[in-house]
Design brief:
Structural class: mainly beta
Number of strands: 5
Distance between the termini: 45 Å
């Protein structure tokens, strides 16, 4: 991946990374609702994303991405 931040990535190349996500959902379990589950970054990799070029302070050259995240929910449709 190309990155304009030569201070952190002197060769102008940002290392690639891999992540594993899983999304499960029912299609109309009942007439008006469905259930879903989302798993993001299952391997809990500590990935860095290229930050803002030439910034300092709270803005960093590499931004840490979220680790493992899990969402479970029920979606209800009130109007048909």
């Amino acid at each position: 991946m190309y990155n304009a931040n030569t201070a952190t990535y002197p060769d102008n190349i940002q290392p690639g990374y891999s992540t594993l996500d899983l999304n499960l959902s029912t299609n109309r379990l009942g007439k008006f609702f469905r259930i879903y589950a989302d798993f993001q970054n299952i391997l809990n990799k500590k990935n860095l994303h290229g930050g803002l070029y030439g910034q300092s302070g709270v803005y960093t050259a590499a931004i840490p991405q979220a680790g493992f995240n899990f969402n479970l929910g029920v979606e209800i449709e009130f109007n048909k």
